[in-house]
Amino acid sequence: MTTLFISDLHLSPNTTDINRCFTQFMRNEAIHADALYVLGDLFDFWVGDDDSSDFAKQVRAEFKQLTDRGVPCFFVKGNRDFLVGQRFAKQTGMTLLGDETVIDLYGRKAVILHGDTLCTEDTQYLAFRAKVNQPWLQWVFNRLPMMLKRKIVGKIQQGARDTKQSKSLEIMDVTQSEVEDVMTAHNVDLMIHGHTHRPNTHRFTSSNQQAMTRIVLGDWYEQGSILSCDPHSLTLETRPFGEK
Ligand code: LP5
Ligand code: MN
């Protein structure tokens, strides 16, 4: 009995090592899981569900194989794949979840999210997020030709990279009070998220004296990174990229 969580793979047609590690993980490990949760930033950037490249087809096929074999797969959108939509969900058999979802992990309640919304000091990013999440803007963007969409994304990514360089590491980490507020609002003592690329298990006492745990998933830049849960334990694990 195992439930698996992954995030921040940043898959693209150019990430050969990560793509291979992901495929091996899906075929050899996830296939035996009770469920698989993807907590955002699966893709380096998802331009839209109309992506018909070989790369997009291959990733969709990996999830479809899993869901066809009866493994429930869930997707929380990240800041790099907020344009994943219902067409992707239908083609993969995945279930799209909202920004914050409470799940039952073998009798323990946990709130799961990507993690970007916890970084409340990164006001520049949050303003950007609010803009690109406007339904009318996404409606328009989704109807543009793929070539044009890629061009626009490339330009904005460059602009975003430039602004990110001037931000401190503190600004780009979670705000502790926000973590506690979200956990308290959902009445849980366990939170699981990605985004910050700082894998760790944080145990702390909240301001109302409750013992709480926040687990941060790692990225896949140098190795595969997984949270493996069974009825008795929650373990952050890594997988080497392995043979070429
Ligand atoms: O993922 P990571 O860790 O690298 O960085 C994130 C935040 N960055 C982003 C950037 C986006 O991925 C870029 C997406 C571009 C595509 C947009 C599609 C447009 C169409 C959609 C319409 C529906 O998410 C980063 C955070 C960091 O996490 C840590 O939390 O700090 O935030 C930023 O860097 C965002 C900037 O702060 C604000 C962005 C301003 C962009 C200005 C671009 C201007 C160029 C205009 C050219 C026409
Ligand atoms: Mn992210």
Automatic annotation (TrEMBL):
Superkingdom per UniProt: Bacteria
Cofactor annotation: Mn(2+)
One BP term from GO: lipid A biosynthetic process
Highest classification ranks of the organism: Bacteria, Pseudomonadati, Pseudomonadota, Gammaproteobacteria, Vibrionales
UniProt keyword terms in alphabetical order: Cell inner membrane, Cell membrane, Hydrolase, Lipid A biosynthesis, Lipid biosynthesis, Lipid metabolism, Manganese, Membrane, Metal-binding
Name of the protein this chain belongs to: UDP-2,3-diacylglucosamine hydrolase
Membrane topology: Peripheral membrane protein
Annotated ranges, domain Calcineurin-like phosphoesterase: 1-199
